[in-house]
Amino acid sequence: MVNTKAYQEIITILNSTKTTLVAVSKIKPAYDIQALYDLGQRDFGENYVQELVEKEALLPKDLHWHFIGHLQSNKVKYIAPFVHLIHGVDSIKLLEEINKQGQKNNRVIDCLLQMHIAKEESKFGFDETDLIRFGEYFDQKKEVLQHVSIRGLMGMASFSEDEALIRTEFKNLKQSFEVLKGSTFLLDPHFDTLSMGMSGDYPIAIAEGATMVRIGSLLFGRRS
Ligand SMILES: *Cc1c(COP(=O)(O)O)cnc(C)c1O
Q1: How would residue 124 be classed by pLDDT, with cut points 50, 70 and 90?
Q2: Which of 13, 17, 26, 44 is the most buried (most CB within 10 A)?
């Protein structure tokens, strides 16, 4: 069941701040996606490759599919023909595979680098040191990476009730975004996207400079 009232409220807030809504539809049926589509929503986020491929085949072609989960290199090929934006690029190996598949499909695939900003331990995402190394790598490899476009950064704050902590984590992510924007991507107008904020913390994310939020349970209900 789609919560259309929540959708309208969220859209009103986001439109006033020019923030893009990615409706996170993982585990939810295609008819829920269709219901939001019919209200005008075009950007949807999925976490699992197989599920995304199945839904893509069922739903309208002008829908923008965001891949927001952890992506294994050997699965990039399945989504490369149609994916709109890959949020979770967390290694150079993955970026190079996306580039390869972009070339095969004769397209440029938009990507975000995932930063590890939360307190929780996670195997996934760059930290600030990785980002410096990435900048060096990218400066050298730019010529080769013609089939990916790095559009910005993505991150997830701690699962916490502590608003001050969440705010600090989003501030750090925004800071990393500004550093890259002012260095590695100084001459690249496409580096413009900061994906942060979910159902529980999106108002804080917007206040801290998100350009894109990823909201699931507020729109589609809890996931079982
Ligand atoms: C599931 C998920 C979301 C949405 O979470 P909600 O709390 O349901 O809004 C956002 N981002 C990522 C990366 C997710 O995996």
Answers
A1: confident
A2: 44
Q: Phi and psi (nearest 5°) for 134?
A: -60, -40
In the chain, where the domains are located: 4-218
| CATH architecture for residues 4-218 | Alpha-Beta Barrel (3.20)
Ligand 1 atom at shortest distance from the alpha carbon of 198: 9
Q: Which atom of ligand 1 is nearest to the CA of 222?
A: 8
3-state secondary structure of 41: coil
Tokens of 37: 């589509």
C-alpha–C-alpha distance, residues 6 and 66, integer Å: 21
How does pLDDT run across 127-136, given as a tens digit for each residue? Answer: 999 999 999 9
Q: Specify the residue for token string 């986001």.
A: 14
C-alpha distances in Å from residue 109, one per residue of 9, 25, 128: 31, 21, 24
